[in-house]
Structure formats: structure tokens, C-alpha cells
Amino acid sequence: MPDILIIGAGIIGLALARELKRRQPAASIVVLEKETGPGRHSSGRNSGVLHSGLYYAPGSLKARLCRQGALEMADWHEQHGIALNRCGKILTPTAPEDAPRMEALYARAQTNGVRVERLDAQALKELEPETRSATGAALWIPDTAVGTPADVLKTLADEIRKSGVELWNNAELARVDAKKCQVLLKHGERIGFGYAINAAGLHADRIARQFGLGQRYALLPFKGLYWKLKADADIRIPHLIYPVMDLRTLTLGIHTTPATDGALYLGPTAVPAFGREHYRGLRGVQPVEALRMARDLGQMFLHDSEGYRQQAWQEGRRYFRRGFLEAVQALLPNVRAEHLAPAAKVGLHPRLFDRLRGVLLKDFVIEQDARSLHILGATSPAWTSAFPFARHICERIENSTVASRGQAG
Ligand SMILES: Cc1cc2nc3c(=O)[nH]c(=O)nc-3n(C[C@H](O)[C@H](O)[C@H](O)COP(=O)(O)OP(=O)(O)OC[C@H]3O[C@@H](n4cnc5c(N)ncnc54)[C@H](O)[C@@H]3O)c2cc1C
Q1: 200 within ligand 1 shell (Cβ under 6 A)
Q2: Which of 5, 53, 154, 174 could disulfide-pair with 186, CB 3.0 to 4.6 Å?
């Protein structure tokens, strides 16, 4: 029986295994992964951006963990010889109405300790001639970079294996008996655990409910589709270029990502999906879940929760080539339809829906009891934040164990 059982070998499960092994070298740790290897879902299908931390509400977990996470993730790349593109990010208004939001983001960047500079029209043109600003002004965030998620996952998995952590692939948790501290795997094996940590990404809410926690939450998957700029487009875009985010929805909008392999990605979208692994076509659609998701989305649309109607309208259009191209051209006027090729990459953002309040939550949510802890809604920037996030989780577990020992004593 392992002392610690981690469910999910995405970046969070792996970073946690590493941190726990460092703190408790004698502990036996098993990571269960239902796929044939680590990082087959969000962690291996993301943009790989090391976010600076400018968007998140001051004091939130995301604001506290992202900036430090970006520094540590960049160091990890360098220490392990993994490609990192320190390209910096431009944030530019695509409509005059974006001006006050850009100011709000400038102020938030300063509160969150993120380096940010103002650009006027001339400075923007010199830095990135391919983009435009609807107001003449833009922001420059020099510390945002692009990493290589696949290589990070591989080196991290190798490192934790060497340290003695057991990584079980093809090991899907099917049922939980929380009272007996046991889980049943899909292939029939039963395992006990001392403490369980649920880092199951798109499935984390269902697993938490099996442990009797997180009953008010349900994950809603949003599909992130990308396009690529064709190599023969003869347009060079070395920077990350983003529109100004609507802070009510925390959706980044279609942006550029100059990947470390030289490709230029455009996207991702954030359109509702009808299954937790509904990546393409009808594969992965789950009819019962789809009905539940349609009901939750309908509730948000009806009440226009935090600007959701506008987001649904905007993102829905981007599912189609023409709508997507419009969003791209708002940032990059020289890009034409023939410059775009569909990208193989597609990911799903697991946004956490609070059924009591009828809203999508913006921060990471952690639920725990004496024998288990659950990470819910680990959306962006969880990849960037993974290392300090893992320390935060360990501290929470240690503090709750000390507190419960104190109560018992
Ligand atoms: C399109 C897209 C772009 C993004 N871009 C960025 C970005 O640029 N920067 C950034 O910081 N973040 C980004 N993110 C967010 C980031 O990728 C995620 O926040 C992060 O990868 C979450 O990691 P995770 O370990 O929680 O989840 P996952 O990577 O989904 O890992 C969960 C694991 O649990 C396993 N699992 C699930 N159920 C079970 C079960 N029953 N039994 C056993 N195993 C199970 C899954 O197979 C999976 O491997 C992006 C996300 C998406 C979708």
C-alpha cells in the first residue's frame, strides 16, 4: 500500500510527486495514469507559454504562484537543456473600447510585480511591424516566454522515477472506497493508500465527488483549437501577441505563439465541448454529460454570468475558419486565409463551474479532508505555476496534518 497515491500524471501530478519525494524521501509514492504515458491531455496539448502573472486578481492563488512558477519553469528548461524561447509578449487593443481594460491590466501587472512597459504607436511599429493597435498604445511584457511542454514532461517523469516514485501507466482509477482508503482500478486491481491526491485534470471533479468532496462543482470543457501560419506565408512574427483580455471571463483570446520548434501557432479557441475528451469530430462526446454541460452553459447564457453571452457569441464564431480569421486579422492585418493551415494540436480547458452561484471560477480550487486532497479547475496558468503550486499543496497537507494531530492531542 503506497503512503501517497497521486491520481494523474499531468504536469501537476508529476510536480507533486517530485516535491513530495523531496520532502519525504522515505515515503512510498505511486502515480496512477490512465493513458499509456504522462501528459497525454492538457499538459501535453497546451501553448507552452510561461505566463508572467499579469491577469490574475491580486492575492489569488494564480497571482501568487504564476510569477514564481514562470521563473522556476524557465530555470528547469535551462538546467535540463530544453528549448526555451524568451520572446516577450505584446498586448494590444483591437478596438477603442479596450483602452480602459488595458489600463486596468497595466495597473494589475504592477500590483502583481510583473515587469511591464508602455509602447506608443512608433515603439510598437519598431518592435513588431506585423501588429496594430486600435488606440495607438500597447503594452510590452518582456518576461513572458514559450517553453517545450513535451520535453519538460519527459525529463520530469524520468527524474521522479529515478528518485523512487512509481509511475503506473494504463492504470485508470475506476471507483473509490473513501472509508476504507482504497481505490479500484479499471483492470480490477484494488489498492489501499495512506493519503490520496487527485490531480486528474479533466476528470478531477468526478473523482473528488467519489471521495465525497467538491459536490457543488462540475467541470465544463472548452475546446482549444489552433491554426498554424504556413511557412511560405512570408510573414515573420517573433513575439507573443495577445488582444486585451476581458477580465470577467479570463479567456485569453486568439493570440500568436512562436513555438520553440520554429512554428507559429494561432489560437487557441475556447468553444464548449460535449465530452471531457471531445477533441475532434464526435469522438469523445458523452451524451449524458453533454446534456449536463448544455444545461450548465444554458444557465450561464440565460443569466449572462460575467459577460458569458458575449464570450459565447465571440468564441462560437471562431470555431469556423472565417470567424477565426477575423480574430487573427484584428491583431495581424496582413494574414490572409491562404496563410493558415489547421494545426494537429487541440486541447481542452477544464473550467470549473460553481453550480450554486452559476459562474465559472477563475482561481484554482482545492478541496481536502484528512485522507485526500483534490485539485479542481487547474486551468491556465497551471502549467507555468506547477512547481510552486506543488509546494503550496504540500504545505496545505502538512498544515492540515499538524492541525488534526493537534486536535487529536
Ligand atoms: C489549449 C490549452 C492551452 C493552454 N496553454 C497554456 C499555457 O500556454 N500556459 C500555461 O501555463 N497553461 C496552459 N494551459 C493550461 C495547462 O495546460 C493546464 O492547466 C495543465 O496542463 C493542467 O495540468 P494537470 O496535471 O492538472 O492536468 P492534465 O495534464 O490533464 O493531467 C491529468 C492527468 O490525469 C489523468 N487521469 C484522469 N483521470 C484519471 C483516472 N481516472 N485514473 C488515472 N489517471 C487519470 C489524465 O490522463 C491526465 O494525464 C493550456 C490548456 C489548454 C487546454
Answers
A1: yes
A2: 174
Q: Peptide bond preceding 268: is omega within 30 degrees of 0, i.e. cis?
A: yes
pLDDT value of position 406: 53
Residues of the chain with pLDDT under 70: 402-409
> Parallel, antiparallel, or unpaired: how do β-strands 240-242 and 89-91 relate?
parallel
Distances in Å between the Cα of 96 and the Cα atoms of 52, 179, 303, 326 are 25, 57, 27, 17
Q: From edge to edge, which strands make up the β-sheet containing 372-376?
A: 166-168, 29-32, 4-7, 195-198, 372-376, 365-368
Helix or strand (DSSP H, E) at 108: helix 99-111
Domains for the chain: give ranges and CATH numbers: 1-84+148-216+360-409 (3.50.50.60)
3-state class of 341 per DSSP? strand
How many C-alpha atoms does 130 have within 13 Å on its Cβ side? 20
pLDDT at 374: 98
Q: What is the pLDDT of residues 282-304, one digit of tens each?
A: 899 989 889 999 998 888 888 88
Instruction: Give the whole-angstrom CA distance, residue 209 versus residue 216.
Output: 9
All residues at 6 or more sequence positions from 178 whose CB lies less than 8 Å from its CB, including other chains: 210, 211, 212, 371, 372
pTM, entire model:
0.95
User: Using a 6 Å cutoff on CB, does residue 351 contact ligand 1?
Assistant: no
Centre of ligand 1 to C-alpha 209, Å, is 19
